[in-house]
Structures are given as structure tokens and as C-alpha cells.
Amino acid sequence: MKLDIRQFSSKDEGFRKDLNQLLSWESVSDASVQKSVEDIVNRVRTEGDAALVELTNRFDRRSVQSAAELVIEADELAKAVERVDSAIVDALKQAAERVKSYHERQIQPSWQYEESNGTVLGQQITPLDRVGVYVPGGKAAYPSSVLMNVMPAKVAGVAEIVMVVPTPDNVVNDIVLAAAHVAGVDRVITVGGAQAVAALAYGTETVPKVDKIVGPGNIYVATAKRMVFGACGIDMIAGPSEILVVSDGQSNPDWIAMDLFSQAEHDEDAQSILISTDADFITKVKESMERQIEDMSRKEIIKTSLEGRGALIHVDSMEEAIEVANIVAAEHLELSIENPEEWVSKIRHAGAIFMGRYTPEALGDYCAGPNHVLPTSGTARFSSPLGVYDFQKRSSIIYCSHEGASELAKIASPLARGESLEAHAVSAEFRMIDNA
Ligand SMILES: NC(=O)c1ccc[n+]([C@@H]2O[C@H](COP(=O)([O-])OP(=O)(O)OC[C@H]3O[C@@H](n4cnc5c(N)ncnc54)[C@H](O)[C@@H]3O)[C@@H](O)[C@H]2O)c1
Ligand SMILES: N[C@H](CO)Cc1c[nH]c[nH+]1
Ligand SMILES: [Zn+2]
Predict the structure, then answer these.
(1) Is residue 334 annotated as involved in ligand binding?
(2) Which residues line ligand 2 (CB under 6 A)?
(3) How far apart are CA 256 and CA 249, in angstroms?
(4) Quick check: CB of 166 below 6 Å from ligand 1?
(5) I want to staple 253 with a disulfide (CB 3.0 to 4.6 A). Which of 207, 212, 281, 284 is the partner?
(6) Which residues participate in NAD(+) binding (predicted)?
(7) pLDDT digits 0-9 by tens, 244-299
């Protein structure tokens, strides 16, 4: 199958402009999506379960009579494990263990220090009380996303985890439920889209209000998450998947072609880019893609994605490749090169960096250990992978000895008076040793 993928060379006139245009794609949060999400969120907020049931029946083509039918309790999740192929259950358990072990290294302890006058300052870390995990389920089921969202919450010590997942046409995916059991979810509610986000943010008779909603989803989910932020926390707005492969031309072209496919197959809007210092290698990868796509079950999605947002870029040097990679700030960056450790410190913006020829992004999606919920659309410039820190919050701790209070009041008092806030000044001055 011929693939009409954009090809650039850094020598081309207007290369930077073309590159910026390639990256300037924005999710279609158009007015109609915005309006319908607003209506859905408002309805769930005011009508509760009744709206949740009606919207779920409409958007997921179901026919439930009451919200109670949407709930799957923990004992039912355990039964799902028995219905799943034991090889898959084993793989889920191994993946969960690896993700847990990686995230345990992210735990941030509380800390404090004491000054010479006895004043103690510190930071106390507490887990969130109740979290809502959105697991996408409209077009495909994602058991791996259950693990990636739930394991860091468990490691952080979140007391209650409510998972939502749509079950279109009433089809429940047992692997998703088994993953929820393996990860330790307390309760699953089979709702999706903006109505699920609104139910978690505001609470209904059946869905408990949560402190934070995490997890990826389509444009309706992302728009709803933006809208409810403030009523509860959110992790990030994760858009369509992206992969950027930097190659020195020495890898197997078939492997690189498949790595590019691996993200293209997620979504028509996914982005796959190859940058190489070797023009002949780029040609070989393109030929391999045209050959291998014939055998792909999701070939139509792959083709649309590659022809819409894919690109093959020839650069003059590794320095230039790294410079372009930093502009792209991809969700996933593969350094398919001989000495990745020599270049990795020059990468300033990427959600996850996959080092060397034997580290395909797909291993990170399932089981390497790091999280697969990552910043997309260039947001790796300022945000990080989902992690334990997303499920913890910090409180400052301040204990003043009498002597310490006296010393601090000498600083605070003039500053308070400078702000014309007399009560602040006097409150501090009361604690001064001379005034006691
Ligand atoms: N970044 C990650 O880690 C990651 C992981 C897995 C999936 N994903 C992405 O998540 C997305 C999942 O999308 P999806 O659609 O398959 O599932 P989804 O669960 O996000 O959305 C399905 C829901 O969308 C709502 N919806 C659909 N059409 C609607 C309409 N016209 N009006 C109002 N609501 C409507 C319905 O309520 C439905 O339940 C994909 O883009 C996929 O690539 C990302
Ligand atoms: N690559 C996706 C995140 O960008 C996650 C995923 C789930 N399953 C397979 N892949
Ligand atoms: Zn993936």
C-alpha cells in the first residue's frame, strides 16, 4: 500500500516553518464539542443519577433502568479474573508489580529541619483521600491504562479509588475488570465520556465525589476535565499518542517502521515522526512501512494517522536531530542510536525517553515500569509523566519557639505595616519576647 507521508530535509528552505506547521495541530475542541460537554456536565451536576443513566443509555447505546446497574463492586472484579486467560492474568500481575516497583522510587517523604532557636520548619506529605480514574473504552479497551493510573495512586496511599469505564453496547471487557482487581480498585462504574467526569467531580447519589480525576480519554473527556477543574483536581489533558524516533540509520528499518505504526494505530490523530541523519535509511523505513502495513489489522487507522500527522525528516547531524527533538517535545522519544547515553542529557523536552535499539516504546506502554500516561502536544516542555506525586499533596509545617517567634516578628512586623495590615503586624508583635 502506497503511503503519502510528508518528507522534509533540514536543508529545505522553510524547514522550520514546515516543522512548526506539522506541530501546530490542535485537538478539535470546537464550539459544538464545548457546548455539548457543557450541557452534559450541567445536567449531571443538577439532575445526578437520572441524567447519568439517560446519557449513558444514549451515548453508549445501553438500556439500564437505574444507576445501581452501573456499579461493579470489588467482589465482582475478583470473579472477572477467573474468566480471563491465565497467561493474560499472569502478564497483568507481572506488569503491575513492575509498575509498582518503579513508582515506589517516586515516594516523597515528609521532611523537617530545626533552626538553632528551636523553630521547626517542614513539609508534610499526605495522599489524596479519594481519586477517580478514567479508563477509556469507547473504541478500544485499555487494561494497561488501568494499571498505569491505579498503581501510582496505590503507592501514594490513596484510600479509595473509583474507576469509571464506558461499556458501549453493554459489552464489559473482562481484562479491564481483571486489571482493576489486580491493581486494587475499590469500585468500577460503567460510565464514560463527559457524564462520567461530571459525576466524579460533583458526585451523584451513586457516584461518590472525588478529590481528583486522572486518566486519558477522547475530546469529550478532555473537555469535561478542563471544565470541572476547580471542583476537583485533574492530572493533565492527554491528547492523541505521539512517537518521535531519532535514528542513526543503523537500526533494522522493519523495527523502526513498526515502532512508528505502534502509536499510529491508536488513533487517526496520533503522530509518528522519524528523524534520521541517513537519507537512504529513511527510504528503507518508508518501503518497509508500505510492505508491513498490509498485514496490520488496524491498517486504515495507521494510514490516516501517518498521512495526516506523520513525517520523515532528514537532518545533517545528531546535534540537529536533538535540536529538532527538543522542538517537537514528543510524548515518546526513541533514541535508536549507538550511544544513547551520550546524547540523553541533551534532551530537554520529552515525556519518556527510550534508549537504544532494543527499547521500543511498546515495552513502556505495558510493562517496563514507568508510566504510560505522558504529556502530549508539546506539553512535555512544562509537565511530567503521571506519577505518585500526582496523588500526594504537601502541607507546610511551621512551629515557632518563643525566641524564634520573637525574631520572625521583627521581620514580619515592618513588612505587614508596609502592606497597611495592622492586625498582621500586631499579631506577630504579641509573640515578641519583649512584649510577653
Ligand atoms: N495517553 C494515554 O495514556 C492513552 C491511553 C489509552 C487511550 N488513549 C486515548 O484515549 C482516547 C480514547 O477514546 P475513546 O473514544 O475510544 O474512548 P473514551 O472512553 O475516551 O470515550 C468514549 C465516550 O465518549 C463519549 N462520546 C462519544 N461520542 C460522543 C458524542 N458525540 N457526544 C458526547 N459524548 C460522546 C461517550 O460518552 C463515550 O462513552 C483515544 O484517543 C486513545 O488514543 C490515551
Ligand atoms: N501509547 C499509549 C499512550 O500514549 C498507551 C497505550 C495503552 N495501550 C497501548 N498503548
Ligand atoms: Zn501505545
Answers:
(1) no
(2) 142, 144-145, 241, 263, 331, 365, 372
(3) 10
(4) yes
(5) 284
(6) 134, 195, 218
(7) 999 999 999 999 999 999 999 999 999 999 999 999 999 999 999 999 999 999 99
Q: Please, are residues 242 and 216 in contact by the beta-carbon 8 Å criterion? A: no
Q: Is 186 known as a binding-site position?
A: no
User: 415, 378, 327, 399: which is closest to 19 by C-alpha?
Assistant: 327
Has the ipTM of the complex gone over 0.90? yes
| 332 annotated active-site | yes
What's the 121 CA to ligand 2 centre distance in angstroms? 42
Of 331, 334, 361, 372, the catalytic one is: 331
Angle between helices 279-292 and 253-264 (to 10 degrees): 60
d(CA 208, CA 187): 10
Q: Which of 332, 334, 361, 372 is catalytic?
A: 332
Residue 60 CA to ligand 1 center (angstroms) comes to: 11
Q: Rounded to an integer, what distance in angstroms lies between the CA atom of residue 372 and that of residue 312?
A: 24
Whether residue 190 has its Cβ less than 6 Å from ligand 1: no
* Ligand 2 nearest atom to the CA of residue 373, by list position: 3
181 in active site: no
- Euclidean distance between CA atoms 384 and 57, whole angstroms: 36
User: What architecture (CATH level 2) is domain 31-234?
Assistant: 3-Layer(aba) Sandwich (3.40)
Residues of the chain with CATH 3.40.50.1980: 6-18+239-368, 31-234
Q: Is 197 in contact with 91 (CB distance < 8 Å)? A: no
How confident is residue 435, by pLDDT bands cut at 50, 70 and 90?
Answer: confident
State the closest ligand 2 atom to the C-alpha of 332, by its place in the atom list counted from 1.
4
CB 260 within 8 A of CB 284: no
- For the domain covering 6-18+239-368, report its CATH number: 3.40.50.1980
